[in-house]
Amino acid sequence: MLKKLKKAGLSFHLKQAGHVMQELPFREWGLFFQEKYGWPRAAAKKTETRLVFHPKKLGGRSLTLRSRCRDIGVFTDLLAHGMYMPAEELKKPGIIMDLGVNIGCTAAHFAAAFPGARIFGVELEKQNFELAQINTQTDRDRVQLLHGAVWDEDGAVSIRGASTDGYAATADQPGDRTVPAFRVTTLLKMWGISVVDYLKMDIEGAEKNLLLGPSEPGWLRQVSCIQVEVHQAELLAPISSKLKQFGFKVTPSRKHWSALYGIKKYK
User: Fold this and answer.
1) Which helix (H) or strand (E) segment is 97 a member of?
2) 221-253 confidence digits (pLDDT tens)
3) CATH code of domain 86-267
4) Rounded Cα distance, 174 and 159, in Å
């Protein structure tokens, strides 16, 4: 059994690497392997550096990553799986909201895949936010990013965490620092948005407050299509029910085991 599991794991990684290499110029294959799999290990650097890739699906746009952290995983998910991209039925979204931008890989992919779309995003962690601005600078006229937390109340919240992909907003525990907090309705008014064609949500557990908290998420009436990463397995069913209450047809994401995909109507 152990041999079968190891073989399956190796097969998965080889397949994943193959998908990524198809999307990268040949000259960047070695850099990807070195960062993702530590090969060749002799060349691996012990200090953080900046890595720049030019994925084909981004149409020549560059993506900058930090070495020796979770950035390479986010990058791999983008190239190998198209993580968080809407289903093909949603052909030409005009307004996209990216709640939980991270380092901006997905926002940059949105900009490349939908040249007529305007993308609005929010990111909690400051270093991620700054890197996201670099990674979306080619489309700065269509991509607008905000540093802060998406929450069920306006104001400020503490954030805690120990890694670039592990920061989360918290209202009931002390955090390392505070950041501005925004309700989704506040963001919609701030950006002058009446209808969101596609909303991607990956906010490290805050989806519980947003969708199941005491404040009714009436802003869902303004959203046509949504994908939510759910960080607690026991919340998949109640969040699915909540989305259905607002008219979404809900299915499990085809690309992420703990994400829900909801759509109201095909375009």
Assistant:
1) strand 95-99
2) 999 999 999 999 999 999 999 999 999 999 998
3) 3.40.50.150
4) 8
Highest mean pLDDT pick, 14-23, 87-96, 146-155, 255-264 = 146-155
Sheet holding 249-252, edge to edge: 143-147, 118-123, 95-99, 198-201, 225-229, 259-263, 249-252
The predicted pLDDT at position 42 comes to: 47
Between the alpha carbon of residue 26 and those of residues 21, 33, 155, 164, 261, the distances in Å are: 8, 12, 47, 29, 34
3-state secondary structure of 193: coil
Inter-residue contact 177 to 158 (CB < 8 Å): yes
Strand order in the sheet with 149-150: 149-150, 177-182, 155-160, 168-170
pLDDT (mean) for 77-98: 87
Instruction: Specify the range with the lowest mean pLDDT, choosing from 14-28, 61-75, 167-181, 206-220.
Output: 167-181
Backbone angles phi, psi at 111, to 5 degrees: -65, -40
Q: How far apart are CA 65 and CA 250, in angstroms?
A: 33
CB 151 within 8 A of CB 214: no
The pLDDT of residue 234 is 94
Name the residue ranges covered by the structural domains of the chain. Answer: 1-81, 86-267
Tokens standing for residue 78: 């983008």
Start-to-end CA span in the chain (Å): 47
Q: Report whether pLDDT(40) > 70.
A: no
